Every structure is written in C-alpha cells, then in structure tokens.
Amino acid sequence: MSTSPNDGFTKQLFVAAEQRLKQLSQLLSLQVLADLPDRLRNFWQALLGSYWFIPTACVILGILLAPLLVTIDQSFDREAVRDITFAFTGNGDAARAIMTSIAGAVLGVAGTTFSITIAVLSMASSQFGPRLLRNFLTDTPNQFVLGAFIGTFSYSLLVLKSIHEFDVAVGVPQLAVTFAIIMAIICALLLVYFIQRMVHAIQASHVIQNASNDAMNNINHWYSDHCGVQHQRDIEQNDVEQFRTWLAMPIYPSQSGYLQQIYFESLVTLTQDYGGVIHMHSRLGHYVTDNSVIGYFYQRPSDHPSNKNRTGTPDLSTLPRSPDGIFWQRLADCIPIEKRSSPSNDIAYSLGQMTEIAVRALSPGINDPKTAINCVQSLTSCLSVMMRSQSPSPYHFYTPTENDDSDESVVERQRVAILAVVTNPPNISELINTSIGEVRRYAAADLMVLKELCQAVVNLNYAKVNDTQQQTLLNELKLIKRAGEENLSYQELKDDLIAMCEEAKRFILDENSQHQHFNYVREFSTNTRQALPATTK
Question: Fewer CB under 10 Å: which end of the chain, C or N?
Fold first, then answer.
C-alpha cells in the first residue's frame, strides 16, 4: 500500500496547524493570565523574528489598498485631479504601461534584495558565527524594505487589473496610479537605504554593538534594585533553609531541548494551588533531555502554618495536594522546552554571542585580534554593570491576601511572604569565566589580547562591591598571567605581560584603587623616556 506525496504534505500541514492552535490555546488559558504580558511579548518577538511576518503584512496591506483607492477613484471628481500637478492624468494605455513597469521593476529589485541578503548571511556565518544570523534575519528595517517591494508589486497587479480603457463608467483610476508612482519612488529610495544598511551591518563593530545592546537589555531585565531580601527576613518558619527537608518529587522536562523561558508568576500560582515549593536547578538556555531532572517540587508539610492561609473557613484548612496530571501539564506550560536555542532573556546567550565573535576572530583563518579586543571591551562594559547592580534573587514569594483566610488573629498580624519558587541564577564569577575566560583560553598566544584582558580585569575592579568579586578578578588575573607564561613565544613578551599582571594585582589589592588611575608603562618605554633628556642635551 503506497502513500501519495499529497497525503504527507497534508499531514504535515495539519500537524503544524495543530501546534499553532495549541500554542494559542495555552496563551489564552486562565492558567497563564498571570504571565500574559510576558507571553504576549515573547509571542510578538517570535513573530518579528520570523522573516515572513512583516513582508506578509505588507502584501496584505497592498491587497487591501488597491480596491480601496480604486473605489475612491470612482467617486472622486476627475477635474479636481487635473489641478494636482503630480497626479497622473493619462489614458488607459499610459496607465497600463506605468503599472506594468512598476510591477516588473519592484519584483526585480525584490529579487536583488534577496540575493544581497543571502550573500550577507553567508559572509556573517563564516566570519561571526551561525548564531549571529538571527540578528540579521530579525532586523525589522530590512524586513520592511523587502515588504515594501513585494507589497508594491501586489498593489500594482491589482490596480492593473482594474484599468478599463473603454469603460466610461469607471475610467482610469488616476489616484491609484498616482499612489503607485509615489510608492515606486519610495521603493527606489528604500533600495539605496537597504544597500547602505547592509554595508554597515557586515562591519564587525556594528555586529558587536548590536550584540552588546541585546546583552544590556537582558541585564536590565534581570538586574534591578529590587530584591527579595526583605521577604527572606519575614518568611515564616525559615522556609529558605528548611524546604529541602520536605518531601521532594523530581521534575522532568516534557521533551528534550533547550529551556527557553521560565514564567515565574505562573509557577507561583501553581505552588499556591498545590502547597509547596518548586526548586529549579536548570537555567535558561540549558539543554535537557526528557529523562533529566531539572528541579524538584517540595511538598509543604500538612502542619505548616502557611496552610491555614489557604481557606476562607476558620475550621477548615486546605492541605497540600500531591502533584497530579494537571499539575504536570501546567508545569510544562510554565517552563517551555524548544528544539532550537533562542536568546529569549538569557544573559549568558547574549554574552556568548560576543565571545563567539572574539573566538572566531582569533582563529588562524581570520586572525583579527582587533575585533577580539573590541569584544573584550564590550564584555567588560556588560560585566561591570552586573557587578555593581543588585543581582537577581533566587527566591520568589507570594503574600496571602486578606481573602485567603478569615482567621482574625491571622488577618490582624502583619502578613509575611511565603516561599514559592527557588531558581539557580548564574553568579558573576561564572559569567566572567564563560566570557572573558573563554577568550583567554583562545588568546593564550596573543600578547595584545592578553594585555587587553588584563586591562579588562582592572576596569572591572572599578565596579566591584565585595571581596568575592575581588577574589574572582585576582583569580582571572592569575590565569591570564599563566596563559602568557606557557604560550607566548619570546621571553620579552612574557616579561611584559608578567609585569603588567603584577602591577594590576597590586592595583586591585590597594584599598583606594577605585579612586585611582591605572596606567601601565612597559619597561622599554620607561627606559626610552629616561634616555630622551640626555640625548637632547
């Protein structure tokens, strides 16, 4: 029994439509209303990230504008149109010729833009890495330029269809043809803009700046002045320390893939309904399998004081419920797993983009240490913001409202936060190791980049706020020094790097270093300056 190709295509189409409907139903379900703004924003970003959405919207706009302007032409005073100097007033043959030329020209230009885009993507993939392709594909202005071309093409075809030379009742749609001429001029200007933008897009400095902007947006999303420290002080029964002693059930992902999002509000609501604490061990961007344990659900004991805040009847308290099928379904909606890795709000992913550019720039095939230095400088800016900002708290709480219980003694006393979700955010030491440390491992034989890494450690010292960060910087400085000692070719280069690292170490250990200027001058330059006055006499 054979299966036709049409049956396979129909099945694939049905499966794709079913997945989209499932995502839409999850988006509109009552379980995710707490995180609806975040889900809508992620859904909108996914649409903008697809290369077809904006061009398709422009095509639909062109299809709607064509009959609208033709209808307006039918009720418009044609003598008044002749008073407009730039309006089209020719006959049907001229209108047909103009619309045919515009349709053919913009379609050819659209093909040119496709060719330029593919060439730029190929160059970016080989020079900056395949993960940077998304930044080119999601460039909204470029998508709008392509959409303007094919939208004008669709509009011109429909207007061309409505031109009737011998139809006296309808006549030539003068306003519609005039609008097509204006759009053709705009498309010509957009072509120049598109080429200019693509020329700048393939420049390394532009790519690094865009990656840095993405990282800063994610940093501002996670790092803020607000923290759950006060909640940790007020929490009942010291749950932060004791929840790990409760009955624990492992959490498995729904499928193998990358952890793309964690919707905290939905997780908090889920823990309220089932009475427990969810501890997530996996982070955003981690790859997990369907058999991996990504966290635990700790069920609150039946005699826990927080259970009394769950009912409106004084003599009846809601006991924690064991996870059932609905619990695991709701949990899968709170932590979506996807087959492909995407940036979402992952800081490590954004920093990894700049790290990947630097590593590729240091490869023998490209050998561009200046680009690697620019990446190190951008990484330093991002890391310094995180070092001096309040790091995100791993603890997430909820505060019961007065309707959660009717016990007057509980209502009158000051309400305290109840622990709901515990995460495992990356600390600054890990981020420094996976960004600057990764560049160090590939730049072990390049003195220029190693010295820039040493300068980056000194610059990060200006942003340190505690001794732990200082020890992290000193450890990274020690590794930079060791990398130069073991891999640099000449002893003079090793001595230069060692001297800079030693001076940087003394500078970091100085208690007043954050109010001083660090300026390393190598020994050769110092001797030259001392010899200059004797030579000039």
Answer: N
